[in-house]
Design a protein that fits this description.
The complex is a heterodimer of chains A (about 325) and B (about 325). Chain A has 15 helices and eight strands. With about 325 residues, chain A is an alpha/beta fold. Chain A folds into two domains: about 5-145, Glutathione S-transferase Yfyf (Class Pi), Chain A, domain 2 (Up-down Bundle), CATH 1.20.1050; about 150-310, Rossmann fold. A four-stranded parallel beta sheet of chain A has the order 2-1-3-4, with helices on both faces. In chain A, strand 7 (about 245-250), helix 13 (about 255-270) and strand 8 form a beta-alpha-beta unit. In chain A, helix 4 runs parallel beside helix 14, helix 7 (about 100-115) packs across helix 8 (about 120-130) and helix 9 (about 145-150) packs across helix 10. The N and C termini of chain A lie far apart (about 45 Å). Residues about 1-5 of chain A have low confidence and may be disordered. The longest helix of chain B has 16 residues, at about 240-255. In chain B, the strands form two sheets. Chain B has a five-stranded mixed beta sheet. With about 325 residues, chain B is α+β, with helices and mostly antiparallel strands. Chain B has three domains: about 1-105, Ubiquitin-like (UB roll), CATH 3.10.20.30; about 135-235, Orthogonal Bundle (Fumarate Reductase Iron-sulfur Protein, Chain B, domain 2); about 240-315, no CATH class. Classes of the chains: A alpha/beta (about 325), B alpha+beta (about 325). At the A-B interface, helix 3, helix 5, helix 6, helix 12 and helix 13 of A face helix 5, helix 8, helix 9, helix 10 and helix 11 of B.
Chain lengths: ~325, ~325
């Protein structure tokens, strides 16, 4: 449907990525993985070990702006991210890997502006220069999901699986900002993405197709008006459940907070769904043999271990 | 020529208790638009199939419908780009609307949201001197031309997940059209318009970019963000949750480099809003029971003074 994809993939080409060659990447965990979803951060580091890649955390990086800074001041959101890219460059890394859909979309949007506009890159560097930093425009931002497919490869991933999911029916939930707008992400079709499905299948699960997979979880408006986000969660999880899902997987901790937290509140209008939600690295790390008790599954409000026991994945 | 099989949603609100579907086949070139296929189906097979159309060239905005589950203008969608794996093209009425007959829906809620905008210029000197032009510079006009391309086809409204659960939300098209007047230098009702659209839940946009499929590239999302910035710049309804949220997020990033979750919740709901905080409490308690509470205080990132430098270099003094 779209003609954007080949072009955008060329922009993200890894042929010239030093990081991919060294298997050593800049790592931007984002705020939520450091605050209320620490299990995401921990399972990402465990997954990196299992994959044999090195994620170098950009410890001095700031928040990406999370779509909210953009609501007040576009320039600040852009320059905050330029500062993060400058840190990656200073470490000799030209790939910045994210584990959050919202970080992915907003950091890519900022980078696209910086690379596309000498004025905006100049504005950013004038400010970065005040504290001795500079961004040369060599960084590309990718999500761990894309790294799994492009740099590890689905075939290799399949071969690394030691605990296949036994056909567990897993519903993908992408999170808006990893796919839309296509002009910013464009790694795959936003209307018919299949990267998560491919990963689910590679680790032995059965992907569930349902219309809610590309819809919004409502996280960004959870505090704005009561029950709106909960209803968006309920609507999507109802669809997933009706299509046979036993669990959900998401590359986004904001979606995770909404899906895991609000299904109970949504039950009054949408019926009980109680679908456990995995962070992407949790389920992949599990299949690659990382000990279950290190994945932080006990932190989830809807305990995923129940279905894992039922399906003989753990005892 | 190709056999085009349309799987059509059929329903007459005055007659049918439940909808049914008809499979209608027409012979046409495979590059035919879905609208032309529907026209042929109506002319050759079943004259009772109902849908809205007029210009057939993406100008009138009448023929938006769901084509294989994707909302789009039928006149702008070639059949060979959307045919299903099973060789059919399903056509359904736009979601987020009440179906009337077949693909025709009740558009009233959508128009009501426009009507509330008072979508016409209201110059400050309305009763003044009408002998002279009200001039607009090319730069000022440039801000308006994209959004003036809106053909009110309601594709974005049908795609909006917030509208789907809360019809009180103005929706992308109306907010984008509010922007068209808010940023028009000839208009005299800027702050009243910002207040009105704020009351119609400007800040309930979830940033999902579903409206990025606008067939006329109006990009309502970016205009919604522009209206939010205008609200903050003009300090309109700043005590509502949306603006408070935007301000406190920026504040915590400036202080710590991080989006400090606890501080953001308190700052958005209101530190002294006991009822609001109690409503948020059950989820908080469930999270606490799992050891999942965000930390009460966030440790500033290394070199946080650099972040402050960025803010201080770019913050626009509030007018």
């Amino acid at each position: 449907m779209t003609t954007l994809l080949p072009e955008n993939r060329a922009v993200d080409s890894h042929a010239r990525s030093k990081s991919a060659e060294m298997r050593k990447y800049g790592f931007f965990p984002g705020c939520v993985a450091k605050e209320s979803c620490k299990e995401l951060f921990n399972s990402t580091m465990l997954l990196a070990d299992a994959l044999g890649i090195e994620l170098v955390e950009l410890t001095a990086a700031s928040c990406c702006g999370a779509s909210v800074v953009n609501d007040t001041n576009r320039d600040i959101a852009r320059v905050l991210n330029a500062r993060t890219y400058a840190q990656a460059e200073a470490l000799g890394l030209d790939d910045v890997i994210t584990i959050c859909s919202t970080c992915t979309g907003h950091m890519r949007a900022a980078n696209k502006e910086l690379l596309g506009s000498p004025e905006q890159l100049g504005q950013a560097n004038a400010i970065l220069g005040k504290f001795g930093a500079a961004y040369n425009g060599t960084v590309r931002v990718r999500h761990l999901l894309w790294l799994l497919i492009d740099d590890i490869g689905l075939d290799n991933l399949r071969k690394m699986v030691v605990r296949p999911l036994n056909g567990l029916k897993v519903a993908p939930f992408y999170g808006c900002h990893i796919i839309r707008p296509e002009s910013v992400n464009g790694w795959e079709s936003a209307r018919n993405p299949h990267s998560l499905e491919d990963v689910i299948a590679a680790i032995g699960g059965e992907p569930v197709d349902y219309a809610g997979k590309t819809r919004c979880c409502g996280f960004h408006i959870q505090l704005e008006k009561e029950n709106v986000a909960a209803n968006m969660v309920g609507q999507n999880m109802r669809m997933a459940k009706d299509h046979g899902a036993e669990a959900v997987i998401t590359p986004c901790p904001l979606c995770h907070l909404a899906l895991d937290g609000y299904q109970q509140d949504a039950a009054a209008r949408w019926g009980r769904t109680d679908l456990p939600t995995f962070h992407l690295p949790q389920l992949v790390a599990f299949a690659l043999g990382v000990p279950t008790d290190r994945l932080g599954l006990n932190k989830h409000l809807i305990d995923p271990r129940t279905i894992m026991v039922e399906r003989d994945l753990i005892s | 020529m190709a056999e085009i099989k349309l799987d059509v949603f059929r329903y007459d609100e005055g007659v049918d208790a439940v909808p049914h579907r008809d499979l209608v086949t027409v012979d046409l070139p495979e590059t035919t638009t879905v609208l032309d296929a529907l026209e042929a189906a109506k002319a050759q097979v079943d004259g009772s199939i109902s849908f809205r159309r007029s210009c057939r060239s993406a100008i009138c905005g009448s023929c938006s419908m769901n084509i294989n589950g994707v909302t789009a203008l039928a006149c702008k969608t070639p059949c060979n780009t959307v045919t299903n794996e099973n060789g059919t093209i399903s056509v359904d009425p736009m979601p987020n609307f009440q179906p009337m007959k077949d693909l025709v829906v009740h558009m009233d809620p959508f128009w009501d949201k426009y009507t509330r905008l008072k979508p016409y210029l209201q110059p400050a000197d309305r009763d003044g001197d009408h002998d002279r032009e009200r001039r607009v510079s090319p730069e000022d006009m440039k801000k308006l031309v994209d959004v003036a391309n809106c053909i009110m086809c309601a594709t974005c409204y049908a795609l909006c997940p917030v509208v789907s659960v809360d019809p009180a939300f103005a929706g992308p098209a109306a907010i984008a059209y509010a922007y068209r007047f808010i940023e028009d230098v000839r208009d005299g009702q800027r702050d009243q318009r910002i207040a009105q659209i704020s009351e119609d839940y400007l800040w309930l946009c979830a940033h999902c970019y579903a409206c990025s499929y606008c067939p006329k590239h109006v990009d309502p999302h970016d205009r919604i963000v522009d209206v939010k910035r205008a609200a903050i710049k003009d300090r309109v309804m700043m005590n509502e949750r949306g603006p408070r949220h935007a301000m406190v997020v920026s504040k915590t990033i400036k202080q710590t480099g991080m989006l400090a979750e606890t501080e953001v919740i308190l700052g958005t709901v209101g530190r002294f809003n006991i009822v609001g905080l109690l409503k948020a409490a059950p989820l908080g308690l469930r999270m606490a029971a799992r050891g999942k509470m965000p930390p009460p205080f966030v440790k500033p990132i290394p070199k946080v003074d650099e972040v402050r430098t960025i803010f201080e270099s770019l913050e626009v003094p509030v007018s």
